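Thread: Newbie trying to understand structure tokens

Hi all, I'm a second-year student working on a class project, and my supervisor (Dr. K.) asked me to get a predicted structure for one chain before our next meeting. I've only ever worked with sequences, so writing a 3D structure as a token string is new to me. If someone could post the tokens and maybe explain what I'm looking at, I'd be very grateful. Here's the chain:
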Amino acid sequence: MSSFLEFEGKTVEKAVQKACTKLSISKEKLKYDVISYGSTGIFGLVGIKKSKIRVTSPEPAAQKSASKDKRSRADKPRRSVSANAKEILKETFGDDNVPTFPEDPSELGKEVLQRIVDFITTDAKISVRETPERIFFNVEGGNTAVLIGKRGQTLEAIQYLVEKIINKHNSQRVRIQIDIEGYLDSRRAKLESLAARLSEKAKRIGKPVTIGQLNAHDRRIVHIALKDDSEVRTQSMGDGFYRKLVIFPQRRFHRNKETF
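---
Reply by user tm_fold:
Sure, no problem. This is what the structure looks like when written as tokens:
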């Protein structure tokens, strides 16, 4: 009776080679189906997915060998992130075309951010400012509306990618913030104004008021804006990255009347 084994590799070819080696069978005799062709991701660092094949193995001994190999791999120490990143870059771009990135996090972040921005728009320049807490990148010029996206979602995605890539090359956690021509300050002012307006509404009608889905950064702005208002409390609700924020009146409050 045939059984099935799955093998992974950075490419389908490498997954096939691994299967042939572990099962002691030639490539010509190997029967397999491709489950996933994998993905090299962005810059060979983010969004990487391995190729996967499903092999038909008619011999129980082969399955036993594969299981033993699986246990052996589990016992082996993982490679360091830097070594893994270099190997991924080499395989993605070829031996002679591997891009070199600066070791300094701010320089690395600036270069990676510039590459991403250049894919989206032209004539955009990046400046850098560092504090002990984080690295700030500011983008000037180009098509700012496209770079920011609806409710800042494109900007969030760019920041996520840049931070991921920086931390792939650093043993210590590096925090960053990317702004585009003062968008974050403008967004903060609008959220603070919205928070004040809706908190007054919650107190006036004596019922909770909900602000639509916000990311963690925006929710924090609203929480901070209302933390000193003793007549309301705020609470994030829902699952996932984008969650709702609800403003609750601490007591039923009406324009000319309070009900305790």
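A couple of things are worth pointing out once you decode it. Residues 23 and 61 are 9 Å apart (CA to CA). The chain has eight helices and eleven strands. Feel free to ask follow-ups in this thread.
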